[in-house]
Amino acid sequence: MTGLLPARVIGQPLERADGMAKVTGTATYAAEHPVPGLTHLHPVQATIARGRVSAVDTAQAEALDGVIAVLTPANAPRLASTEDPELAVLQSDEVAFRGQVIGAVVATTPEIARHAAGLVQVSYVEQPHDVALRPDRADLYAPDKVNPAFPTDTEQGDVPSALADAAVRLDQTYTTAWYHNNPMEPHATIASWDGGDLTLHDSTQGVTAVRDTVAPVLGVAPERVRVICPHVGGGFGSKGQPHVHLVLAALAAKAVGRPVRLVVTRQQMFALVGYRTPTIQRIRMGADRTGRLTAISVDVVEQTSRIKEFAEQTAVPARMMYAAPHRRTTHRLAALDVPVPSWMRAPGECPGMFGLETAVDEMAAACGLDPIEFRVRNEPERDPETGRPFSSRNLVACLREGARRFGWAHRDPTPRARREAGWLVGTGVAASTYPAGRIAGSSVTIRFGPDRRYQVETAAADLGTGTWTALRQIAADALGVDYAEVDLRIGDTALPPASVAGGSTGIASWGSAVLDAAEAFRDKFGANPSEGDEASGGMPDNPHTERYAMHAFGAQFAEVRVREDTGEIRVSRLLGVFAAGRIVNPRTARSQFIGGMTMGLSMALHEQSVLDQRFGHIVNHDLAEYHIAANADVAELEAHWIDEHDPYVNPLGTKGIGEIGIVGTAAAISNAAHHATGVRVRDLPITLDKFLS
Amino acid sequence: MDADITLTVDGQVRQVRVDTRTTLLDALRDRMGVTAPKKGCDHGQCGSCTVLLNGRRATTCLALAVAHDGAEITTAEGLADGDGAPHPVQRAFLDHDAFQCGYCTPGQICSAVGMLDEARAGHPSAVTTDLVGPVELTDAEIRERMSGNLCRCGAYVNIVAAIQEAAR
């Protein structure tokens, strides 16, 4: 482990530091902070998909005992900035999507606020809306970049000629559904003003980002805004940036002069807090007779909202997964009268690797090759598009180790060849990948406390990821002390700033800053500090970033059973092997991997937000009808990893593990379903009807 | 309309005034500051609000507080003993890392405690084949009986392992 921080506490499977608080229910989430004089807000949402509010009759609502204020575009305080249309709440009478916030009731109790919101009478001037995503739309456009800053299109060589000359060709379209993040804790904000100072208890993946985004919208200096969030009940990207409820709570608290709590309902979450766009992926591939890819082409069509652009980077993984001299990727968007899409666990990689890895399975079969051998044969020596070497790339090792653990060697590749008591049984494999990145902007302060313990402070977040434990382990090793000698404080803008917990960058970013601060502390105070000694550090630049392509890899194996007479599909086994650099805490890391894989299973079989095009809203907007995997949907599921030493990604050697678990799972399941039935399902979710037609 | 009711929550007898529309969950969380039961959906679809209501697991978001005057409620907080030692199910959840974000966890744990009692009492589930003999708590039985408690972090396999350990 040369060049990396020596691991002593790192690598230990320690119990979660916040574990007792969570199993006893005493960990405090955003809506639960006791705030004196609290009032309650219930939003009023648009019931048309496009047009404008022509009149609002608030008389009945205002007449209700306990109603403090009814806010509308006509009387709401003005925001300092309306640059971000998603956040510019109650600033105009325009309606851009069904479910948009067009009013709000503040009352003394949540029951009264909700009742009164239902009494607000809204009249509209309706315009025809357009919510239909189709690949043949005439108005598809190329965004300037795709999330977060990738080129929209790439092209190398001569794809049309290579495809024309290929011995084996594929030209298929794969689609993924509209998905909602649906963390178990609904988004919630408590906003309290004290003169010009604003305190926000918010459920967020990044308190610093919330402060820095919201302050200019409200016209307040960032240092006068404090955001507090010690525990997050899941986010999966939907709490990565502020959504409208946060601004609305702050605005309403200003208007009524009292603290306001806004807890978004589960139904409202389907319109207000982001989602993953549906994707349409046309994939073309060409290969020679030996099964070597000569051309890879991925053309993606997806949606954004008319008021704000979000371009999911769906074709990006196709840029680095496999070698081929001729290659291209494109992204085209339809701007529709729909809610604003945003981040959802592994944006880009998650939907993109469904298409790519299903296509690879089809190509392997067309070439008469085992899907693992096909992937091995098309391993690139360097990042195909940039020509950079990989800092480490252990996809093949993951495939081999997974094959050994899963029992792949005995597999009969013939589809529809295995029947067990009325079930068709099949197995499938898919690759997984996620970039190993870092986000700048984190600072860490280390102080030697009165109790001779080290206080480590940064505004990082733990959304179930294990930050409370893992960052403390890193601090212990960075300082060369025991885990028990370290206290950690996170989740508060009163602490030094930290980057958002997104893009699987948390531990790499904050951990690098912890290491830097620990080095500064030891340089200044040596091994025997005095009470009150304090040093700070940040995330140093990494000179290797420009020289190497940095990605984590994995291999996912699935066994599925499809009922021959009904088409019912069950996933009886899932096994993942990952190469994601050094693992800080094996116990919490395993939970991250299995959690991602479980969400991938859910995506493969269950999840789909169903749009009613006539009205522009999601019909199945609750947890009974938007089905996320329940306990009985998950049978055998295991995650493993290989030891991987990567001296280039960062001084900790970690690659980030929050997202890779969901990448490739759905393809492994769809490939297994094809092996079981001979039916190739290219459109998620894989539902029973698709095996019966 | 308001009503005064009495609830015994985690061993403490407490009076509380509620709107007759107030759910038991909102009475606990908003009126009494008891926040171990969580609100995930408010529709009885996710199980986060599960407590032991007069000894049996129940989703408190589907119960009106005024209809439960005099009820005895145990939350996940009340399952731990007074000295802070966790209940065996809580201990098993910690040992198996049967949670991540922790938001569904108090409901999962109350549900598991109630479910183990139901199984011991011989209640069958949809996957029970022998309706006469004692319930054998296979993994499939636990999965079925715990499917009213959603976990978006995807800790199900660890939850099943934790409950198996606690059931021993």
UniProtKB/TrEMBL annotation, chain A:
UniProt keyword list: Molybdenum, Oxidoreductase
GO molecular function: iron ion binding; oxidoreductase activity
SMART domains xref list: Ald_Xan_dh_C
Pfam families hit by this protein: Ald_Xan_dh_C, MoCoBD_1, MoCoBD_2
Positions of the Aldehyde oxidase/xanthine dehydrogenase a/b hammerhead domain: 24-128
Residues passing through the membrane, by range: none
Region (Disordered): 525-544
Protein name: Xanthine dehydrogenase, molybdenum binding subunit apoprotein
Lineage: Bacteria, Bacillati, Actinomycetota, Actinomycetes, Pseudonocardiales
From TrEMBL, chain B:
Residues annotated as signal peptide: none
Pfam families: Fer2, Fer2_2
Nucleotide-binding listed as a keyword: no
Pathway annotation from the record: Alkaloid degradation; nicotine degradation
Keywords: 2Fe-2S, Iron, Iron-sulfur, Metal-binding, Oxidoreductase
Keyword Signal attributed: no
GO molecular function: 2 iron, 2 sulfur cluster binding; metal ion binding; oxidoreductase activity, acting on the aldehyde or oxo group of donors
Domain 2Fe-2S ferredoxin-type per the UniProt entry, residue ranges: 3-79
Protein name: Xanthine dehydrogenase YagT iron-sulfur-binding subunit
Source organism of this protein record: Goodfellowiella coeruleoviolacea
